[in-house]
Automatic annotation (TrEMBL):
This is Class I SAM-dependent methyltransferase. The keyword Methyltransferase applies. The keyword Methyltransferase applies. Residues 6-56, 395-488 form the DUF8157 domain. Residues 167-288 form the Methyltransferase type domain. Residues 227-251 are annotated as: Disordered. GO terms for biological process: methylation. It comes from Haloarcula argentinensis. SUPFAM superfamilies: S-adenosyl-L-methionine-dependent methyltransferases. Keywords: Methyltransferase, Transferase. Pfam families: DUF8157 (PF26486), DUF8157_C (PF26487), Methyltransf_12 (PF08242). Transmembrane segments: none annotated. GO terms for molecular function: methyltransferase activity.
Amino acid sequence: MNQDTRQQIRDNAQYLRNVRPLDPEELHEYVEDQPHPAVVKQVLREEAFDLGIVEQGDGTFVPAPEGRLSVDFDGVERFPDRYEQQVIDLLTEWGGLEWHSGDSGDELRERIRDIKERYLQGQAVEYDELTALGYAVYHLPDYYAVAKYVLADLAADGLLPSQLRVLDVGAGVGGPALALRDLLPDDALLDYHAVEPSAAADVLESLLEDSGQNVRWEIHRALAEEFDPSSPIGDNSGGGAGDGDSGSDDSTNEGYDLIIFGNVLSELDDAAATLYRYVEALADDGTLLALAPADRNTAIQLRQVEREVADGGPATVYGPAVRLWPHQSPDSESWSFDRKPDIEVPTMQQRLDDPAGGTGEFVNTDVQFAYSVLRTDGKRMHDVTPDRGIHAPMADAENYVTDRVNFLGVKLSHDLAEREGANPLYLLGDGSQKVDHFAVLTEASILNEDLRKADYGDLLSFENALVLWNDDEEAYNVVVDGETVVDRAR
């Protein structure tokens, strides 16, 4: 199809979109060379995001909803069967019907062991077909669950538009991509771009092929450090087109509504410098989401990168580690992560685990993750500024050790008590802390029950809390006893 025909279809669609539903059977008559209606429909699908239209069940197109994205979400119980079957199909292509047993099963298990060991040692992983399949079996289900929880929260907070342009950096085998696609209602528009140079892109491409209507996607097979997020879409070398490669010459990049770095920061040579570049590619009201595994090294690294990018500009922290005090930034270690209910054991993991003795070595159902949400418009999850006349900043903790004080703090952990029967223990932060602060619940009461009931990331108000220094942990203990009142702050 020549560009003139495509432009005529676009022009007519733009003119008629607010008059009546766009019917390819009608629209083709308004084009000079009268292309087949199926050709018109394909062009409308490819140009849907730029035209702001969505396809309906009857094959016509209508204006896409505007405003903020609204999603229905009630947690993640299991990795969807359709995706698991697609992964199993890839495994079958690689190793046959009995991919999980015999030599192929041994080879795959050994590769997963190697991946896990290299990760623990902080060593680089070479991505080939077998490594990509290993990631798909072992990590894709929990990465999918993690992404879905966080993305649903972003939508609930009104941070994502109904017409959503996304850049997924280090997209891997597709956890965020699949979670996002499943969250979107039928009338939302998604323009999804993945940056993934490795063989994982082949798995991702296979999983995205059935994306259907109202989703345009493209995989850019380039390193995160080499990809230019500010260039017009389609101009980056190494890109591989998916369903949405329109072939039009006037593609522009007005900024991404959402940029995702999913479990990739630890693999970058200079994560902070890379994030700096990508933050500049956000739309004015866009969001950058960084995810990391919950283990100590990667979760702490996430906070360090967050501070380099946010506390010196160009971004600010939306959450969860909100800076409540103006012109203050934290220096604490802040091993902070969220935890959600485990998902069911995927069949493919069980098949791989059983021949190895069924010990659970190849089962990964934990949904634990660290995350950071950055923006450039100054918006915060908790738009609250403490009053020094009422609240004590954590930065000044050494001045009020052994005193009872009032302060505001974000709950940054679930119960960290390591033994049964120990006092519940929670990490806190107000964005000014120089060392870690832990709330210790020594005497539960109706006055302080919000400490236990609050979710990760909730803002809490503490009244009459006793602050002590803990030599063993080199941290401050905020003792919550019968004299302490804890409320969710609004």
